[in-house]
Amino acid sequence: MTVLAQRMRAQRLSEQATTTGELLDSVLALQAQDVNALRLAARARGVHDLTGDVVRTWAMRGTLHLLRSDDLWVLGPLSPVNVQRGKRRREELGLTDDLCARALPALREVLTDPLPRRDVVTRLTEVGIALDPKSQAPAHLMAYAAANGVLYRTLDDRYALLADIPEPGTVEQLWRRYRRAYGPATVADFAAWSGLPKGLLRDLPEIEDEPATPAGTTRMLGHFDTYLLGYKDRGLALDPAHARRVQTGGGILTPHVVVDGRVVATWRRTGTGFEVNPFGPRPDLDREIADLSRFLGVDGALTWA
């Protein structure tokens, strides 16, 4: 189907990238709350080693994503919404507006080098910002500081100061980059992906997508892969009859196999390799199994459920 072929190409699943920068220039961001899942998403798009000037921060839907530093303009349209959305929970955790305002310069003072969260909390206490390390308050304060352009989270789960960030972008700019990474797609899809309220999405321009032809591409995708997470309506790629086998709740996706844009199976790691549970005829997975096995450094034994 042409639409799915276009999406596969836009997501670099059929025409793969060779560097992290090239990949993120195309797809804008990869979901990154789970670093192992992030690496699987990059692998499926041709990149086996995440390098370069990249930042892991809270962006679309208030969720951790990996972006190029040059693309931190996305904080312009996203951060006010994310900050407001998290206000009630911050207050429940004792993170008042006054405390959060005092914490931002304090974080700039104490983050002299990348630190794990526990050390950040210790240093904040030393400068008068006391947080309960056993509560969710530190995590929510870090997300608030990231939304305000103060810090980011490294791939090894440390916190580091952001350098200068680009001028804030606009909703239309984000829409255009979303369409380049996910098109064809609707404004409703954009709202679901970005987390922006529909009231901010009026009068967005129409965008044409270049046609594409199915190329027989097969990819094994992991948890939280952006291919499905980029759309409100996933019915074109994922048959509703099988949706519950992939969408298990809580925003989690069971690792799945995509052939020419259609989800045709789920998969999981086993002690000796991989088990695949197809929805219909067995897909040809020889090349994907071989590449994924090399990437993970495991035996490539394949069993069928």
Automatic annotation (TrEMBL):
PANTHER family registered for this protein in UniProt: LMO0824 PROTEIN, WINGED HELIX DNA-BINDING DOMAIN-CONTAINING PROTEIN
Protein name: Winged helix DNA-binding domain-containing protein
The organism of origin for this protein: Saccharothrix mutabilis subsp. mutabilis
